[in-house]
Predict the 3D structure of the following.
Amino acid sequence: MNASTIKPRVAVHKFSSCDGCQLALLNLGEDLLTLAERVELVHFAEAGPLNPDTDVDIAFVEGSVSTPEDLERIQHIRAHSRMLIAIGACATSGGIQGLRNNADGAQWIAQIYSHPEAIASLQHSTPIARHVKVDFELWGCPVNSRQMLAVVNALLLGVAPRDNADKVCTECKRHGYPCVMVTRGIPCMGPVTRAGCGALCPGLGRDCYGCYGPAENANTDALAAQFAHLGLTPPAVAQRFQSINSQAPVFLAAAGKAQAIRDE
Ligand code: SF4
Ligand code: SF4
Ligand code: SF4
């Protein structure tokens, strides 16, 4: 085969997750068909191809590391992938399942399952980058299809994908959406949350709850003060940071500060 006709080999792997970020890839629709002409999709269980152990050029990884099996498998995938892209809040911050990191997970399992010994679960749910080198992180719960396509296109062109770590507020302004915090006094996480969704929630007249994780230079102290000014109690302020990306260090610290005020 002529070298110019060799297509990059791509795999999509699932760890501890809900599959929603893989759906973002499937939701590309016609673009996915076009993409399939430019890459060789060698492993994507949700779409059909199964070959999890093969060498690939690009591995997309959805989900957090939260079981002993995850721990082993991520090392194997890293060793067999030229580029590894973590997609979604689970893979970049530990996800909603990371809420158990501050609790007694074993106690929860004992309360829920009749045979807790059958559950193999680590005490903590952790992001992929905690365990192996990650070449690029795409945040969001879920990531959106447009972002996925942009990343794949950049990689196929051999350039670094664009990392938009600006705040949701910038997208809100760009779209001309009225600010729900200023006009209606609704506490909104947009000032500290990473852009990428197109300010989806404010565009529908509701607050951002931070699903894209922390933006760069996120001033969580100022936002926590604003939340308090709007009438939120310290536990309620902490809760705003303890959502889908609760284990992202910036949000974890902000929640800790609010809890410390409550405990004073
Ligand atoms: S980031 Fe959200 S949508 Fe994506 S796999 Fe995790 S829970 Fe599902
Ligand atoms: S609605 Fe939220 S995201 Fe939009 S400008 Fe106001 S604070 Fe920022
Ligand atoms: S506005 Fe906030 S919560 Fe809504 S999709 Fe965007 S980042 Fe997620």
About this structure: The CA atoms of residues 78 and 133 lie 8 Å apart. The two ends are 70 Å apart (CA to CA). The beta strands are 9-14, 40-44, 56-62, 81-87, 136-138.
